[in-house]
Amino acid sequence: MKLTQIYRPIEKELQSVERALFSAFSESKYASVLELGEYILKSPGKRIRPALVILSAKAALSDKAEVFQFEKLIRVAAAVELIHIASLIHDDVIDKADIRHNRPTINAGWRDDVSVIFGDYVYSKAIELIGECSDPDLILCISEAIKTMSEGELVQVCQRGDVGLSKDGYLEMVGKKTASFFAACCRLGTIVAEKNSQVQEALREYGMNYGIAFQIIDDCRDIVGEENELGKHPGQDVMMREVTLPLMVLLDTCEQAERADLVKMLESGTGQVDCGRIRRSFLNSTAAHKTRETALHYVGCAKRHLSFLDDSEYKLSLNSLADCVIQELPIAAKAEKKTSERIRTHAEF
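User: That's the sequence. What structure does it adopt?
Assistant: Structure tokens below.
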């Protein structure tokens, strides 16, 4: 299912979020803010995070989905997208990335210092939107989310090239840098909907598990994806020697000699990393299949937490959004098919 279909029940709200995002920059009297704001909003992402806020609020309310403050919901949804945008602006500086959404990054089109300062500005606009809601629970939730994301990013940067990173260590890291924010988006929606702690926890767990699956698939796509579908250079994380779950699984499944070569490559400088070789090794092994199975496990966990909610079109969209993660990795599905065929062929002989 395509995102446009999944988002159909909240189409009106997402349109309002877009207007709020443009307003966040258009109100400035400074030409540089107007220029940069227009630039980043002309290449929009998938808007998953604001969709999570809105869908969670409406799924929590079920048949009373219109009974809450509309403007408050839009402010919160716009705020989480601004936080996401700000984090990407900073990430591009850290990773020395020059392409995102098939366009030059701000650090490539302008400068690193401009990117860092503008990223800070975008964060401040997000906090301003949350502050306008005058809700201490929202402020606490969003500040905790930013803190946790920052911790996760710091851990990731400090552990680059560490092939000794355990699966638990990886899951803790992605839980902080990615999944915790997905969980916060869901919880923010339930706070706006004024639902009890049980509903908040169920949707928070949905967001956490969905976020882990999302990051695992994103890490796979960095290895096997094509530039035209990623909107950025493939192998960017590999080049930065980030040890992700797909790489861990590859190292566990490949032959000893190949493993030694890959470890040496990852432990050396960034200029020594052969992304093409890693991609071929990944697709020719069972690593793609095993990694996809792990992501499927977390998708299943996410969907099970939705069973607490009454049936509604919003709950259905949350279910479909979780399923959509796996569809983002068609190459892994092909690799899985090849693996199954290989196993079947050996069995026949």
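Strands lie at 99-100, 103-104.
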